[in-house]
Amino acid sequence: MARASPAFRMKTFAILNGPNLDRLGKREPHIYGSATLADLESQLRAEFGAVARLEFFQSNHEGELVDKISALAEAGVDGVVINGAALTHTSVALRDALAGSGLRAVEVHISNIYKREEFRHKSLTAPVCLAVITGLGLEGYFAALRFLLKSGA
Ligand code: CA2
Q1: pLDDT at residue 4 greater than cutoff 70
Q2: Are 126 and 146 within 8 A, CB to CB?
Q3: What is the pLDDT of residues 32-45, one digit of tens each?
Q4: 109 tagged catalytic
Q5: Which of 35, 86, 105, 128 allows an S-S link to 80, with CB 3.0 to 4.6 Å?
Q6: pTM for this entry
């Protein structure tokens, strides 16, 4: 007898961006390119909208990002793409939030943090993420989502 195929459940992923990334495309295009955060959102929706639910969140405030990670864990989302921006290099709170959430997370940096100032070479959040993508520009967000979609339960 043919086995019934399991019901299809669309996965949900959150794309989190930290301090100053709301300025994307408006300043420092030589480092971060000329696309805005809104451009990134519409490009990611165009690419993945048919196969995944995407939730976008940007904040300039550490506590808001911590609260968001906790809410996403409660909601049981399938994964998180996080560019913690400067908080990557400083925030024990963000690291603890990710570690305690049990969420599958991929860290993304638009620029190659290892080609930049030494203080950017250390990521406090990388050890609690599945992977880090750095220096691919906005393509890093696409690569992270592709990975999260293909892997996991
Ligand atoms: O390369 C990245 O994606 C970073 O996470 C960006 C952060 C930086 O602190 C990290 O070291 C690497 C900075 C984000 C600020 O973005 C701006 C974009 C346009 C104009 C001003 C800031």
Answers
A1: no
A2: no
A3: 888 899 999 999 99
A4: yes
A5: 105
A6: 0.95
Structure tokens at 55: 């939730």
76-97: per-residue pLDDT in tens?
Answer: 999 999 999 999 999 999 999 9
Q: Which residue is it, tokens 């969420």?
A: 103
Residue 142: which of 42, 30, 28, 36 has the closest Cα? 42
End-to-end CA distance of the chain: 26
Cα torsion 33, 135, 20, 55 to 10°: value is: 100
CA of 84 to the centre of ligand 1 (A): 9
d(CA 148, CA 105): 8
Q: Does position 7 have pLDDT exceeding 80, yes or no?
A: no
List domains and CATH numbers for the chain.
11-150 (3.40.50.9100)
pLDDT in tens, 52-75: 999 999 999 999 999 999 999 999
Contact in structure between 132 and 123 (CB atoms under 8 Å): yes
Quick check: helix, strand or coil at residue 52? strand
CA of 139 to the centre of ligand 1 (A): 15
List 109, 114, 121, 141, catalytic entry: 109
Q: Which two tokens stand for residue 73?
A: 């864990």
